[in-house]
Design brief:
By secondary structure, the chain is of the alpha+beta class. It contains five helices and four strands; from the N terminus they run H-H-H-H-E-E-E-E-H. A two-stranded antiparallel sheet has the order 1-2. Strands 3-4 form a two-stranded antiparallel sheet. Strand 3 and strand 4 form a beta hairpin. Helix 2 crosses helix 3 and helix 3 packs across helix 4.
Amino acid sequence: MVRDPSREPDPPSVDDVLDALADDDARRIVSALSEPKTASELSEECDIPLSTTYRKLERLTDASLLSESTDIRRDGQHTTRYAVSFETVTVSVEEADDRQFDIEFTRPERSRDERLADLWSELREET
């Protein structure tokens, strides 16, 4: 399974993003992701129990702060890696009468390799 927030049709709610970022463990996970890593690697590096790490990764991914990709291996032991999916997150208050909060992401440009991997993933899903 590949989850890429930049390709999601509906943006996350402001509450989901702020709740995810309000969590100390989740922020440590985001800070540790200088490159894509597995849940086990993050659990060890951040000194967070693996079960908690998985819950935090799910929350961060649902909030469009992380993307996940699966490394397909011939031996069947596929590996899921997580990566930061934003450059900036901006929270603003709309100046309309209702003063609603809004959230905006700046996403990194995808490399040729990432776009090619996306095409292969889509092709696998269709077959």
